[in-house]
Amino acid sequence: MSEHFDIVIAGGGMVGISLALQLGAVLPVETTILLVEGAPMPAMAESGVPDYHPAFDARSTALSYSSRQIYEEMGVWDGLRQWLCAIESIHISSRGRFGSTLLRASDYCWSGLGYVVENAWLGNALIQLLYRQGRVEMRCPVKVVGAKPDGKRVTLDLECDGLHGHFSTDLLLVADGANSRLRDQLGIAVNEKPYQQHALVANIASAEPHAGCAYERFTDTGPLALLPLLKADGIEHRSALVWTLPAEQARHLRDCDEVEFLQVLQERFGYRLGRLIKVGKRHEYALSLVQSTEQVRKGIVVMGNAAHALHPVAGQGFNLALRDVAALGRVLGEGITAGLAPGDLETLQRYQRGQQSDQDRTIQFSDRIPTLFMHADPVLGLGRDLALAGLDILPSLKREFVRYAAGAVGNGS
Ligand SMILES: Cc1cc2nc3c(=O)[nH]c(=O)nc-3n(C[C@H](O)[C@H](O)[C@H](O)COP(=O)(O)OP(=O)(O)OC[C@H]3O[C@@H](n4cnc5c(N)ncnc54)[C@H](O)[C@@H]3O)c2cc1C
After folding, report:
1. What pLDDT, on the 0 to 100 scale, is given for residue 177?
2. Centroid of ligand 1 to alpha carbon of 323 (angstroms)
3. How far is the centre of ligand 1, averaged over its atoms, from the C-alpha of 384 (Å)?
4. How would you class 133 by CB atoms within 10 Å of its CB: exposed for 0-12, middle for 13-18, buried for 19 or more?
5. Between these two residues, 154 and 123, which has the higher pLDDT value?
6. 176 touches ligand 1 (CB under 6 Å)
7. Which atom from ligand 1 is nearest to the alpha carbon of 175?
8. Alpha carbons 145 and 200: distance in angstroms, whole number
9. 13 CA to middle of ligand 1, Å?
C-alpha cells in the first residue's frame, strides 16, 4: 500500500481523536485526513451510545470551562454531556494544618467549575462522534513506525501484524503520547524533569454523597485529589482518586489489600465523604514534566503529551492540549483556505507563537503547585496556610485561582 493524505495524525488517544474531530469540522472537505492508532479502537456503536471500553485507561479527566467551550464550538459537547459530572465546588485543604478554602461555581455565576469524566467514556464518546462525522479516514490497530521528511513531504512507514506499508503526507501531527517514539525518531529532543512521585489512580465509593465537590488535599507526601463522578454499577457515591505519593508507597498501596488501602486513605483524607467503603482497580503512573524542545517544523507538529506532559495535580494537561488543538485547527483552516499547503512552516509557526504564552503559564502553574505544597519548611508551611486562608480572605486572589482551575486564563479571557 502507498497512499497520500494531506494530513496524518499519528496516535488516536484523547488528543489525537479531538484533533481529528476538530480538523474534520473546520478544514475544507477536499483536505484529506488520516488518523492512525496503534491499539484496537472501540467499534461503531449502532445506537450511538458507546459501551464502556478499555481502549481508554482507568483515569478520569477534569475538563475545564475552556474545554467545554471548545467542545461546544466543535459541536461535540451535547454528545458528551451524559458522561459528565459537574464540579460545583472545590475544597482545598492541607493535612495537619488550619488553612482550607472552598471555591463555589455559584459565587462566579457559573454552572460548574469543571466537569469530571471517566477516560473510558470520554475516549469512546469522542470516537463515536468521529465515526458519525464520517470525515476522517482511520487505520487501527496500525502503528506509525517510521517518519522521514524530505523537505517536501513526510514519508511514513506503517506496520500492522508484521506487514509494512508506506504513506506520504504534507503534514504529520505527532500525538503518540509522552514517550513518543516518533518524536525521538525525528530527532526532536525533550527536557524531562522527574518529580520522584507516582500517581495512584482508582475509583472510590463513599458512604456520603460528594454533592459535586472536588477535594484537593495537600499532604506531606504529596497532593491527593478526589473528583466527583456520576453514579454507576449500582454505586451511588463515587469519586475518582488521584493520589501523588513517593514511588515505593504508591507501589505498596497499589498492591495491598482493600482494607489496608481504605484505612490509609481514610486517615490521609479524613471523613468529609463519610466512611470510604470500596476501591476499584488501582493503577500507578510515574510522574515527570516532559517538554518537547521543538513543536513545529515544516510539515510536522508535535501535540498533546508528546509536546508537553504535565503533573496531574492541577488537572491541566488535557485541557491545555485541547486549547492547542482548537488553535491549530483555526490557524490551519485560515492557511489552507488562503491556498497554503497544510505543512507550510510559517502557518505552523504562527500556531506555536499563538500558544506559547498559554503553554508557558499553564506549565509553570502545574509545576509550582505540587512542590509548593510539599515543602517541609515550617515558614513556607505557614505561608501556604495563609495562602489558603488568603484565598477566602482575598476574593480577587481566589478569583484568579478559579480562573486558572477553569482554564479561563489560558483561554485568553
Ligand atoms: C493520573 C493522571 C490524571 C490526569 N488528570 C487530568 C485531568 O484531570 N485533566 C487534564 O486536563 N489532564 C489530566 N491528565 C493529563 C491527560 O491524561 C493527558 O494530557 C492526556 O491523556 C494526553 O493524551 P494524548 O492523546 O496526548 O496521549 P496518550 O493518551 O498517551 O495517547 C497516545 C496514543 O498514541 C497511540 N500510539 C502510540 N504510539 C503510536 C504509534 N507509533 N502509532 C500509532 N499510534 C500510536 C497510543 O496507543 C495512544 O492511544 C492526567 C494525567 C494523569 C497521569
Report:
1. 95
2. 15
3. 31
4. middle
5. 154
6. yes
7. 26
8. 31
9. 6
Closest CA to 214 of 371, 393, 92: 92
Span between the terminal Cα atoms of the chain, in Å = 47
> What is the rounded CA–CA span in Å between residue 406 and residue 307?
22
Q: Burial level of 46, CB count in 10 A (0-12/13-18/19+)?
A: exposed
| SS3 of residue 75 by DSSP | coil
| Residue 410 in this model has a pLDDT that exceeds 80 | no
What spacing in Å lies between the alpha carbon of 15 and ligand 1's midpoint?
7
Q: Measure the CA–CA gap between 169 and 403, rounded to whole angstroms.
A: 39
Q: In this structure, what C-alpha cell is assigned to residue 256?
A: 495491598
For atom 20 of ligand 1, the residue with the nearest CA is: 318
Task: Residue count of the chain, please give it.
Answer: 413
Q: Which of 140, 176, 295, 367 to mutate to test the pocket of ligand 1 (most atoms within 8 A of CB)?
A: 176
Q: Check if 201 has its Cβ closer than 6 Å to any atom of ligand 1.
A: yes
Residue 163's DSSP bridge partners are 160
Q: Which domains does the chain have, with CATH numbers?
A: 2-63+119-192+288-372 (3.50.50.60)
Segment 165-189, tens digit of pLDDT: 999 999 999 999 999 999 999 999 9
DSSP type of residue 44: P
The residue whose C-alpha atom lies closest to atom 51 belonging to ligand 1 is 312
